[in-house]
Amino acid sequence: MENFNLDTLKIGYFIIYKGNNNLFCKVVKNEQLESGFSKEESEYTHVEISGGGYWAINAKWPRSSLINILKDHKARYVKVVKYRSTNYDIKRYKVGWFGATRCNLPYSLLSVLWFKINDFIFKTRNIFATKKAPFCSFMCAWALKQVYSEAFEKPEEILPAHFLNKDKFELVWEGYLPDKEK
Questions:
Q1: How many Å apart are CA 33 and CA 67, to the nearest integer?
Q2: Potential cystine with 25: which of 19, 48, 72, 92 (Cβ 3.0-4.6 Å)?
Q3: Which of 61, 35, 60, 27 has the alpha carbon at shortest distance from 136?
Q4: Half-sphere exposure of 88 (CA within 13 A, CB side)
C-alpha cells in the first residue's frame, strides 16, 4: 500500500489497531481467539471511528474522547476500513456523528471484565454494554448500526476483530502510523 496520508482517514472510517503485549491487549486477544478469530485477526485489539485527518473518537479509561492519533498511537500498526455499502461515502458522516455523540461518556471497565466471567454464568457476552458506558468495539458498532441497522445484530457482542470481516468491511489502507506527533 502507499505511504501514510492523512487524507486517507475520512470521517466515519474505522481504524483498527494491532495490540501490544500489555495485559489489556492480551485479554482482548484471548477473547477473540476463543470466539473463533484467527491468530492474525486476534492481534487487532482496539478500534476507533475516524474523525478525519489525525482525529479519532477513542473509547478508553476513564472517558471516551476525541484524540490526535499521531500523539496517542504513533508508530502503531493499523488497518483503516470502511463499511461495504454502495452509499457509505455519503452516509459515513452520520456514522462519525453518532460516534461523536459518545464522547466524554465514562468507559465501561465492567464491560471489559465481563469478557472473562460471562462464560461461567451467562450466555450473553456483555450485559454491561450500554449507550452510557462505551468500550471501543461496542461504540463503533453502535454508531454504525444507527445508520445501517443490518450491520450488526448485537453491537454489545462485537469485538475489534469483527471490523476485519472482508464481507462487511473494505480495506482502505494498512501500515504503520508515523512516529511523529503533529
A1: 29
A2: 19
A3: 60
A4: 19
The domains of the chain are located at: 6-176
Instruction: Report d(CA 47, CA 78) in Å as an integer.
Output: 9
| Model confidence pLDDT, tens digit, residues 74-94 | 999 999 999 999 999 999 999
Residue 70 CB neighbour total at 10 angstroms: 19
End-to-end distance of the chain based on CA atoms, in angstroms? Answer: 22
Question: For the domain 6-176, what is the CATH code?
Answer: 3.90.1720.10
Cα distance between residue 152 and residue 100, in whole Å? 19
Q: What separation in angstroms does the CA of 26 have from each of 43, 52, 95, 140?
A: 9, 29, 29, 21
* Per-residue pLDDT reduced to its tens digit, 143-176: 999 999 999 988 888 999 999 999 999 999 999 9
Q: Which of 6, 122, 134 is nearest to 60 (CA)?
A: 134
Contact 80/172 with Cβ under 8 angstroms? yes
Query: What pTM did the predictor assign?
Result: 0.86
Could you tell me how far CA 87 lies from the centroid of its own chain? 21
**DSSP single-letter state for residue 64:** -
